[in-house]
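Reviewer 2 asked us to include a model.

Predict the structure of this chain.
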Amino acid sequence: MSVEPVRQRPVPRNAGAVGRLALVAVLGTALFAGCGDDAVQIDAPEPAPDDQAACRTLLQAVPDDVADQAARPVQPDGAWGTAWGDPPIVLTCGGPAPKGFNRTSSCTTVNGVDWFIPEEQLEAATPSDLTMTTVYRHPTVTVQMPADYWPPATTLADLSEAVAGATTRDGACL
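Predicted model (structure tokens):
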């Protein structure tokens, strides 16, 4: 039996450089892959004492994914809100009634929950960031949705069950 010698390729002179570039690529990917995992800063007012139990219930009931975006950690710990995706969709609980809303304002009803979206945001020439706030519900829930997730129907559909279960209805859109 004859054994032929194994031919080896010559090692390129820049093999060290290629190895370093590969290492940089792997480390860079690892560093930037987690960018969406950074905590989202929530700036939410503390709900009135009578609203805190409902807000806690809501924050425990929200889905893990909204508009196909995974939940993200929030800061500060114990914030009265939560977030999903990058850029983040942010929900807060217990804030004020929406500015510009009155009894004759148009609103959108999704799965039994009435939402107010300012007309100027909906009528923008291109999709814009939206502020969607529950109306005729106590406590008030506000969702800040970046234009990246346009249209808002999926976000509202994903959240409405949790909102309906945790808040009290005290009226309805006309």
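Confidence is low (pLDDT under 50) at residues 1-36. Residues 39-169 form one domain. We have added this to the supplementary material.
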